[in-house]
C-alpha cells in the first residue's frame, strides 16, 4: 500500500540533520524516548523504507513518514 498523505516541508536551516532530531523538530514525536521506541519498532520510514537508525543522517529532500504523516527535509 502506498502512502498518499500530503508531504509537509520542514525547513531545518542547514544541509543535514539526524533522523532522531528531525522527528522531534518536525513535531512527529515529543521526546527522545518516544523516538527511540518508534524507530526500534519499525514505525518510521525514510523515503518509503523502514529505517531503524536514529542516527541516520538525513539530507535535504529526504521524506520521513510516521503514523500517516509525511514530512520532507527542506533547507
UniProtKB/TrEMBL annotation:
This is RNA-binding S4 domain-containing protein. Keywords: RNA-binding. The lineage of its organism: Bacteria, Bacillati, Actinomycetota, Actinomycetes, Micrococcales. Gene3D superfamilies: RNA-binding S4 domain (3.10.290.10). PROSITE patterns: S4. InterPro entries: S4_RNA-bd_sf. It comes from Agromyces tropicus.
Amino acid at each position: 500500500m502506498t502512502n498518499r498523505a500530503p508531504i509537509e516541508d520542514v525547513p531545518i536551516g542547514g544541509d543535514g540533520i539526524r533522523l532522531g532530531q528531525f522527528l522531534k523538530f518536525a513535531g512527529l514525536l515529543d521526546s527522545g524516548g518516544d523516538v527511540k521506541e518508534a524507530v526500534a519498532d519499525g514505525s518510521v520510514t525514510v523515503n518509503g523504507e523502514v529505517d531503524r537508525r536514529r542516527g541516520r543522517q538525513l539530507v535535504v529532500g529526504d521524506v520521513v513518514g510516521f503514523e500517516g504523516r509525511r514530512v520532507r527535509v527542506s533547507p
